[in-house]
Design goal:
There is one protein chain. This protein is an alpha+beta fold and about 200 residues long. About 25% of the residues lie in helices and about 40% in strands. Strand 10 and strand 11 form a beta hairpin. Helix 1 packs across helix 3. The protein starts with a strand and ends in a 5-residue tail after the last helix. About 5% of the residues have low confidence.
Length: about 200
């Protein structure tokens, strides 16, 4: 399931409004809320659980193309959304000692929502960043193979590039800020749109 192209522009515009919609921040352990929990709660006073569920589901259906492919729901209680976005993240980093380049990463992720009367719980997003690379020719070794490169959250012994080192030091600030902006924007858009849906 992919986000609709028109809405991806809206998400970029929403990035400038994030000062009051910072649901999650990225850490070496993944996304956490402002109080370092693995979820955050949005208060929606005077709205019943089933209506909150329907409103968020309708918001997701309007924002994503073919949302049914990536939806897992428990009627009236929870929604899990799995999505994939091409070229969602632009990151500058070195690759194999040849200086820094600008790379576009595809993003696959899962967002989960749970509902009670007057409250929406959003679990910390899970994600994976990948980019496709073409094999290149080097005179000494010939053609290299093509394949997918995964950007790791925390650098392991054999990883060339990661967002954090094994001691928790931030290595790629634009990756961290880009992921935070992206997910906070997506969540803001879903929540704001859900609040504008009228139940008849």
């Amino acid at each position: 399931m992919k986000i609709k192209k028109g809405h991806s522009i809206i998400i970029l515009l929403l990035v400038t409004q994030l000062s009051f919609a910072q649901y999650f921040k990225l850490t070496p352990q993944g996304f956490v809320s402002n109080d370092n929990s693995d979820y955050t709660v949005v208060d929606v006073p005077n709205v019943k659980q089933n209506n909150l569920y329907k409103n968020v589901l309708n918001a997701i259906n309007s924002l994503y193309s073919n949302p049914q492919k990536g939806l897992n729901v428990v009627e009236g209680e929870s929604i899990s959304l799995t999505a994939y976005e091409e070229n969602a993240l632009t990151i500058k980093h070195s690759a194999g000692g040849f200086g820094k380049g600008i790379y576009k990463y595809d993003l696959s992720y899962t967002l989960s929502f749970l509902f009670k009367d007057g409250k929406i719980r959003i679990n910390s997003p899970t994600f994976e960043c990948k980019r496709w690379y073409e094999g290149t020719y080097r005179p000494t070794s010939g053609w290299g193979s093509s394949g997918w490169f995964t950007l790791k959250l925390v650098k392991g012994d054999k990883d060339r590039v990661a967002i954090y080192d094994k001691n928790g030091k931030l290595l790629l600030e634009d990756a961290s800020s880009g992921l935070e902006n992206h997910f906070n924007s997506v969540l803001k858009q879903i929540i704001e749109k859900s609040k504008k849906i009228n139940n008849w």
